[in-house]
């Protein structure tokens, strides 16, 4: 009996293949876009983790010279003799033709983590001796290794997966030769096991400062904003996909009511039926989920290279651009598909399990709707109010997300009532029988189309919100680059001596040579970089101040006050008028706050003389050079020739800006692609609701056709209807999207990253988006419209002949 | 002649021929009852005359207009301006009120006469239902609205396909009385499909459809 019931129940799908395909597509889209985003995020996180795990080196505390200079071999030997477990490191960037790698040379005798690196290597075990004796070995990821092998004279390269991209690990002796920096140590690693009783650092090596490991948390924090965006997109696509599932499942259950009644009248218990239905849903969810995973993998794989470039360029976060298949990802994708399907069918399931055996014939309720609308409006308003209340009660991320969720949910619920009110107004404007019917019919269609329209609203609002945020970010960043990069040329000397020579040499050849000197002051909580500047118009005119007291530059340049960056200002509440503690015992009033995007750490600016008073040994190796643009290239060339400076030590401002901007373009490619995808899903939701409505549609259209409208006219009206509803939805989506953008920029961003981005409006983008939305809705309505146009009259006539 | 049907044939795809040379003519103001067995093609013939479907051969002329030559637009115009149809059921536009339904066809045809619509509404006893939606009406009420809508356009030719087939005997009788009364006073020609000999007897003429021909 159960088998008979099951086959009767499931035969529904055989008779409604479009419904089945729609349902599977809905599940697949929901699971697919969600898991695509998850895959990208997971890949990026794995890359960060890999970078963090690299040789353990970045997880270790370090010692470096307070003045930033190289550590002498004598200091190293003294420290080790006194019992300190430290390993010397020489690290620098190395240019090979057109790529740059970071060479990390570690004293492999002192540092015993080599086995951890060689573990992942397929070939026979490598002994430390091999790595130490000439010509030595270098370790790198296979991708990096390939470039190294192509380079003549490079020591043998061993592949390992334990290193991040672009990193070359080797013994310090090999690194000295590769980098041509004999006898130099950039910093010391403090190894995990320090013996008891070793003397204080201040006693043995007073020049050295201890830096707690910062690891890759900073990268993670910065890139989090990017991942947050992606996740928001993924979640929205998921929800939009669920709308499709909800709609189709509801319809399928509705259409199977008579059959279910018959089965129950024949004596099949409800519990058995419920189990059969659940089984069916599970199977559908798994099938759709599998297709979705495939889809997600393809989307992720095609987007990942751009994402990788963005993250690498924007934050220096190393992300590989190939996608690995992770079992956890597969499992979570399927779990999301199942959970989502069950969630979307909850209402249908509930109705199903409460279905009386005998029921009144289905009511369409053209007239009895106002009460439902009222309930929905109240629910929508409450959602917004709860969001507002949460916003008022909490602060930071929680507040932002609560208001965002409340507004999105509330606006979505309010959409149908608001549209109904709009149509009531349109009703009054409509003249002529066809126009009146058109509006009345649109109102009648609203409940059946509202899910799809809600999906469209969400997709559009998300697009406007995230689009505005990203574009505002770009515009702000662009302007900020112009303000911050005022020097024509940025020059980095090898050491202080060369720095002094350079400054002397450049002075007569340039309009101004501004030293860029800074010191890192570590504190328990947050690292702080203090920069010393000399007075110059370029600061006074261009520096991106977002808050300033009176005579800000006069006070800073004369050493009476300091500037702090926005992150620090927001974090510690330091605004003009407060007092900042730069180092123990060194306090200054705050004269102004400047924006400093992409920098996770605190930063302060004081007069150079003042800085040198506190830290006499601040290295003097970097300079910003002002001179007319047309002479910059020549000077750069001369510098390279006369001082033997490598190409990346002399950077033209234009190149720097171009590089930064190129990275942003990549961000746009990714958000643009996701925009199109979510809109596509919303369009698909419209299409599926129109298709599933098809059978209910004919009795509404046939009388009008019989009274003298052509099928072509009706088809055109169907198209117009979809366009009109989409337009109204788009108009409502605009304020919602802008609110979303404001929340992202002014609340979430500040709470998560410490800086607030000014909001810019991009009407041209909205226009483009609206056009896209209309095209989407139009395309979705085209198929049913064409079908109507070609419909044989005999089908329409059946409406009047058949008993329904 | 108001209507001529001349040797019309019609076959639905994949089925046997339904009409095989059906011929019929009607003059203005005439009322004809069309009878025939179930499946004999009565509804089919009515649909062809109302320009709702196409025939395979022969010719139908309504008010001097030959239907075979018309495209979709021309056929829509015939439906709108020349004929009015009352079906067995589902005549009404579900999204419009009774009042809107009543005047819809007349407004489409650009022949709205509010006084006439009011008169029809009162004669059919619909005055109190005007603001309701069709789904809230009984079957008899719905058919009265359908007849009212057809009459409101003042058609020269009214086609009715078992308009009372879904109603109980008493209601059916009352609805039919109203329709015949309206048709006679306005001089409208009526082609009425019915199974009932009693109904057929009340009309001017009686046509019987059998074997794809009218006798
Ligand atoms: N749309 C259609 N497609 C295919 N065959 C049809 C269609 N409409 C009617 N037929 C067939 O054409 C024949 C005539 O149908 P029609 O509806 O005209 O009969 P009728 O005389 O009106 O019958 P009834 O008294 O039962 O209403 C029947 O055999 C029917 O099956
Ligand atoms: Mg019939």
From TrEMBL, chain A:
It is found in: Cell membrane. Keywords: Cell membrane, Membrane, Transmembrane, Transmembrane helix. The chain crosses the membrane at residues 230-253, 327-350, 376-394, 401-426, 446-466, 667-694, 731-754, 766-786. It comes from the Bacteria. GO terms for cellular component: plasma membrane. Residues 232-356, 675-793 form the ABC3 transporter permease C-terminal domain. Its main location: membrane. It is a multi-pass membrane protein. This is Putative ABC transport system permease protein.
From TrEMBL, chain B:
One of its GO terms (molecular function) is ATP hydrolysis activity. The keyword Protease does not apply. Pfam families: ABC_tran. Residues 3-215 form the ABC transporter domain. Transmembrane segments: none annotated. Keywords: ATP-binding, Nucleotide-binding, Transport. GO terms for cellular component: plasma membrane. The keyword Ribonucleoprotein does not apply. PANTHER family: IMPORT ATP-BINDING PROTEIN (PTHR24220), TRANSPORTER, PUTATIVE-RELATED (PTHR24220:SF659). This is Putative ABC transport system ATP-binding protein. It comes from Ruegeria marina. The lineage of its organism: Bacteria, Pseudomonadati, Pseudomonadota, Alphaproteobacteria, Rhodobacterales.
């Amino acid at each position: 009996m159960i088998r008979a019931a099951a086959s009767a129940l499931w035969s529904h799908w055989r008779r409604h293949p479009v419904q089945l395909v729609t349902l599977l597509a809905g599940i697949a889209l929901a699971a697919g876009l969600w898991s695509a985003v998850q895959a990208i995020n997971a890949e990026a996180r794995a890359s960060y983790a890999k970078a963090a795990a690299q040789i353990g080196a970045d997880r270790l505390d370090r010692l470096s010279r307070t003045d930033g200079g190289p550590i002498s071999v004598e200091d190293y030997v003294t420290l080790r003799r006194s019992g300190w477990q430290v390993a010397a490191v020489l690290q620098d960037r190395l240019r090979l033709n057109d790529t740059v790698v970071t060479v990390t040379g570690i004293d492999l005798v002192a540092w015993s983590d080599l086995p951890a690196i060689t573990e992942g290597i397929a070939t026979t075990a490598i002994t430390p001796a091999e790595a130490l004796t000439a010509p030595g070995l270098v370790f790198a990821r296979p991708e990096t290794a390939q470039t190294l092998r192509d380079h003549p004279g490079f020591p043998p390269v061993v592949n390992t997966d334990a290193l991040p991209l672009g990193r070359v690990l080797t013994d310090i002796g090999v690194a000295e030769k590769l980098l041509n920096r004999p006898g130099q140590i950039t910093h010391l690693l403090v190894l995990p096991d320090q013996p008891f009783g070793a003397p204080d650092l201040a006693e043995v090596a007073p020049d050295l400062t201890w830096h707690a490991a910062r690891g890759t948390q900073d990268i993670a924090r910065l890139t989090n904003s990017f991942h947050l965006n992606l996740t928001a997109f993924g979640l929205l696509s998921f929800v939009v996909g669920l709308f499709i599932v909800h709609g189709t499942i509801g319809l399928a259950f509705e259409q199977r009511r008579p059959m279910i009644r018959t089965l129950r009248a024949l004596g099949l218990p409800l519990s058995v039926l419920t189990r059969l239905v659940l089984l069916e849903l599970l199977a559908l969810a798994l099938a759709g989920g599998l297709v979705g995973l495939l889809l997600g993998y393809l989307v992720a794989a095609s987007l990942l290279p751009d994402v990788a470039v963005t993250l690498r360029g924007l934050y220096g976060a190393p992300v590989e651009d190939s996608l690995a298949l992770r079992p956890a990802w597969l499992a979570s994708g399927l779990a999301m598909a199942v959970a989502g399907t069950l969630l979307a069918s909850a209402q249908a399931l509930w109705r199903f399990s409460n279905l009386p055996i005998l029921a009144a014939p289905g009511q369409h309720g053209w007239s009895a709707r106002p009460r439902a609308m009222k309930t929905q409006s109240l629910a929508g308003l409450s959602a917004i109010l709860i969001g507002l209340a949460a916003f008022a009660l909490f602060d930071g991320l929680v507040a932002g997300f609560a208001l965002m969720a409340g507004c999105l949910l509330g606006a979505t619920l309010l959409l149908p009532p608001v549209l109904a009110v709009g149509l009531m107004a349109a009703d009054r404007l409509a003249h002529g029988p066809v126009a009146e019917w058109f509006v009345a019919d649109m109102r009648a269609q609203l409940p059946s189309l509202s899910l799809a329209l809600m999906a469209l609203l969400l997709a559009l609002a998300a697009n406007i919100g995230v689009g505005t945020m990203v574009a505002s970010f770009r515009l702000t960043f662009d302007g900020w680059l112009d303000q911050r990069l005022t020097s024509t040329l940025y020059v980095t000397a090898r050491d202080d001596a060369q720095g002094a020579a350079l400054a002397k040499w450049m002075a007569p050849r340039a309009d101004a040579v501004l030293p860029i000197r800074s010191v890192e002051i570590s504190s328990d909580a947050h690292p702080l970089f203090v920069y010393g500047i000399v007075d110059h118009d370029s600061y006074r005119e261009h520096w991106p101040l977002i808050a300033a007291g009176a005579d800000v530059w006069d006070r800073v340049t004369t050493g009476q006050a300091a500037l702090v960056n926005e992150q620090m200002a927001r974090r510690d509440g330091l605004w003009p008028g407060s007092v900042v503690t730069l180092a123990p015992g060194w306090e200054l009033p705050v004269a102004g706050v400047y924006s400093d995007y992409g920098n996770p750490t605190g930063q302060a600016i004081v007069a150079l003389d003042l800085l040198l008073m506190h830290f006499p040994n601040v290295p003097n190796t970097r300079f910003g050079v002002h001179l007319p643009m047309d002479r910059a290239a020549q000077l750069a060339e001369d510098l390279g020739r006369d001082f033997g400076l490598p190409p990346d030590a002399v950077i033209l401002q234009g190149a720097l800006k171009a590089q930064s901007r190129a990275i942003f373009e990549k961000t746009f490619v990714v958000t643009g692609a996701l925009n199109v995808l979510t809109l596509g899903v919303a369009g698909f939701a419209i299409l599926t609701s129109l298709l599933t409505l098809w059978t209910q549609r004919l009795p509404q259209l046939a009388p009008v056709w019989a009274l003298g409208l052509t099928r072509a006219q009706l088809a055109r009206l169907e198209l117009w209807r979809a366009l009109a509803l989409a337009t109204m939805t788009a108009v409502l989506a605009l304020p919602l999207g802008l609110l979303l953008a404001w929340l992202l920029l002014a609340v979430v961003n500040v709470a998560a990253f410490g800086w607030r981005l000014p909001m810019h409006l991009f009407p041209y983008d909205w226009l483009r988006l609206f056009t896209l939305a209309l095209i989407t809705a139009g395309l979705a309505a085209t198929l049913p419209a064409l079908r109507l146009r070609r419909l044989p009259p005999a089908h329409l006539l059946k409406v009047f002949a058949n008993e329904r | 002649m108001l209507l001529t049907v001349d040797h019309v044939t019609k076959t639905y795809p994949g089925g046997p021929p339904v009409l095989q040379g059906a011929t019929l003519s009607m003059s203005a103001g005439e009322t004809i009852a069309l009878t025939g067995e179930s499946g004999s093609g009565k509804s089919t013939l009515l649909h062809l005359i109302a320009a709702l479907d196409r025939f395979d051969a022969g010719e139908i002329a309504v008010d001097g207009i030959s239907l075979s030559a018309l495209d979709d637009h021309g056929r829509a115009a015939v439906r709108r301006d020349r004929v009015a149809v009352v079906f067995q059921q589902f005549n009404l536009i579900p999204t419009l009120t009774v009042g809107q339904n009543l005047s819809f066809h007349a407004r489409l045809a650009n022949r709205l006469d509010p006084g006439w619509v009011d008169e029809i509404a009162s004669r059919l006893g619909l005055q109190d239902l005007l603001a309701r939606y069709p789904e809230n009406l009984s079957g008899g009420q719905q058919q009265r609205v359908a007849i009212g809508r057809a009459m409101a356009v003042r058609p020269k030719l009214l086609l009715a396909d078992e308009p009372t087939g879904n109603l109980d005997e008493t209601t059916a009788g009352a609805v039919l009385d109203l329709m015949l009364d309206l048709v006679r006073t306005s001089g409208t020609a009526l082609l009425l499909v019915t199974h009932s000999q009693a109904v057929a007897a009340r009309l001017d003429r009686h046509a019987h459809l059998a074997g794809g021909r009218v006798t």
